[in-house]
Amino acid sequence: KRVQVTELVDVIGVSGVTIRQDLNYLEEQGYLRRVHGAAVALRIDDIDTRLEVRFDIKQTLANKAADLVAPNETVLIEGGSANALLARTLAERGDVTIITPSAYIAHLIRNTSANIILLGGVYQHQGESLVGPLTKLCIENIHFSTAFLGVDGFHQDTGFTSRDMMRAEVASTILAKKRRNIVLTDSSKFGQIFPLTIGSTAQISIVVTDDKADKKDLDFICQQGVEVVVS
User: Fold this and answer.
1) Which tens digit of pLDDT belongs to each residue from 161-174?
2) CA-CA to 207 of 20 to 30 Å: which in 17, 65, 121, 223?
3) Distance (Å, rounded) from C-alpha 157 to C-alpha 117?
4) Gap between the Cα atoms of 163 and 145, Å rounded
């Protein structure tokens, strides 16, 4: 699921420059993701590895999204690598209450002074998320003003989609609360289709993404009454 550039240099017998160029090309073709000094499989579920992919872009998006959160606001952060960076940014601010069904996020910000509420549910080992009927019940009975959702893909035919049925159900429960719902995602998710649709595009209030996102997709999202913030 992961290979170092130096390993490929030894095995194939070409220069590191050549390996890096080839890995970049394979990433452009959608076969893998590049991280510093290595490449990882596209659908790897380890969130630490996903955090490394496009790290600088995700941190920029997290900073932009944090500006949308007012002091003393209560927010729900559902999960995903960009949202994990957002949670850390907000937690370091120290003036926000963070509700999350992500054990990974709760662990990531454990040493901050942030007020953290970890929801209950069935623990998913690889993604470190809590899901299922208990998680949905917790969401239905807790209050927040803004929710940040993670997505795996977006296509005009399907809207926002997820590869995980249980997480998609959690996201739909969040959307049903009709709060300010924000999708934080880098441009690589656009054009991707996964099995489970997350609500309707019109249920999203704001999409925060980077300037590499497809303009036609962003225009389509705007037409659904969604605000688009490009970082």
Assistant:
1) 999 999 999 999 99
2) 121
3) 35
4) 26
